[in-house]
């Protein structure tokens, strides 16, 4: 009986010691969990101005971090030693970070791209020697699609740290058609009919105005560039139409190609 009484007294002492802690920890857990949910909803509402993918990711990240911190705090209130637990988490995080440093660099690059928006979905960009239309911006990669139907996956880390050429940011694209013409071509007459031909196309923008410019001189001829701007994404179809129209117009106007020039030298050797 004395042993049972001793156990009962020890149990009573433990209940007296830990019951208030458990009750306080339970209240803290419930209230903290509710507050985290409330804070997550506020963050989600505030993040609606950001990209949808970024807003969802940031909301989930904040929610998970706050819940982990809450559980550690509750464990400490009950009486568990949390110092070693936090140290283990820190060491594990460091090891995972070192193992996934490339992935983390891509993650950081994705966040920077989503925040600063050097390009958005639908833009045509060139980066790391690859070009295409942006179909999707993921946390770790950017997905491009080329006119040939190829899918290109660019790591966000390398993309955000390299030169990015956004070909559609200004909402216009240059169409340049180059032709080698005879040196005898009258440039004033050429511009008189070629510029209205370019302006008449349905996709050519009025400003900047179309141009006809000589870009190079060659033996017997010259290189002429016919230039016009179109809305972004419509330069391909406009270029195909204008090439056919210019080819027919050059033939009708009698503008020929360069005539090859050959020089012959005769040298008489002494007998």
SSE layout:
Elements lengths: L1 H45 L5 H27 L4 H17 L1 H16 L7 E4 L2 E8 L3 E5 L5 E5 H5 L3 E3 L6 E10 L4 H13 L11 E8 L2 E10 L4 H18 L19
Helix pairs in contact: 1-2
Write structural notes for this entry.
- This protein is α+β, with helices and mostly antiparallel strands.
- Helix content is 52%, strand content 20%.
- It is built from 7 helices and 8 strands.
- The chain has helices at 2-46, 52-78, 83-99, 101-116, 156-160, 187-199, 235-252, and strands at residues 124-127, 130-137, 141-145, 151-155, 164-166, 173-182, 211-218, 221-230.
- The mean pLDDT is 80.
- The chain crosses the membrane at residues 15-36, 57-80, 86-116.
- It comes from Hymenobacter negativus.
- Residues 103-167 form the Mechanosensitive ion channel MscS domain.
In terms of per-residue confidence, which ranges show pLDDT below 50 for 5 or more consecutive residues? none
User: Total number of β-strand segments?
Assistant: 8
**In percent terms, what proportion of residues is strand?**
15-25%
C-alpha Rg, in Å? 36 Å
Mean pLDDT: 80
Tally of helical segments: 7
Structural class: alpha+beta
- Main beta sheet strand tally, sense and closure: 5 strands, antiparallel
Q: Could you tell me how far the N terminus lies from the C terminus, measured between alpha carbons in angstroms?
A: 144 Å
Spatial ordering of strands, largest sheet = 4-3-2-1-5
Helix-strand string: HHHHEEEEHEEHEEH
Shape: elongated
- Residue share in helix: 40-55%
Provide tags for this entry:
271 residues, 3-stranded antiparallel β-sheet, 7 helices, 20% strand
């Amino acid at each position: 009986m004395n042993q049972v009484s001793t156990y009962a007294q020890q149990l009573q002492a433990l209940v007296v010691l830990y019951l208030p802690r458990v009750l306080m920890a339970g209240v803290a857990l419930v209230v903290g969990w509710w507050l985290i949910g409330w804070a997550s909803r506020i963050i989600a509402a505030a993040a609606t101005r950001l990209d949808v993918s970024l807003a969802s990711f940031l909301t989930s990240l904040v929610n998970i971090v706050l819940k982990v911190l809450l559980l550690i705090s509750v464990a400490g209130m009950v009486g568990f030693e949390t110092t070693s637990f936090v140290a283990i988490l820190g060491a594990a995080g460091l090891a995972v970070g070192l193992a996934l440093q490339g992935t983390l660099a891509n993650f950081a690059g994705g966040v920077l791209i989503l925040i600063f928006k050097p390009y958005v979905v639908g833009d045509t960009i060139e980066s790391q020697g690859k070009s295409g239309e942006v179909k999707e911006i993921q946390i770790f990669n950017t997905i491009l699609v080329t006119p040939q139907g190829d899918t290109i996956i660019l790591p966000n880390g390398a993309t955000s740290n390299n030169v990015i050429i956004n070909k559609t940011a200004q909402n216009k694209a240059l169409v340049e058609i180059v032709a080698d013409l005879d040196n005898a071509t009258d440039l004033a007459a050429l511009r008189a009919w070629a510029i209205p031909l370019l302006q008449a196309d349905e996709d050519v923008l009025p400003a900047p105005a179309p141009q006809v410019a000589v870009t190079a001189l060659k033996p017997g001829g010259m290189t002429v560039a016919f230039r016009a701007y179109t809305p972004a994404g419509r330069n391909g179809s406009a270029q195909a139409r204008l090439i056919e129209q210019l080819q027919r117009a050059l033939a009708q106007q009698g503008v020929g190609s360069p005539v090859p020039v050959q020089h012959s030298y005769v040298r008489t050797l002494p007998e």
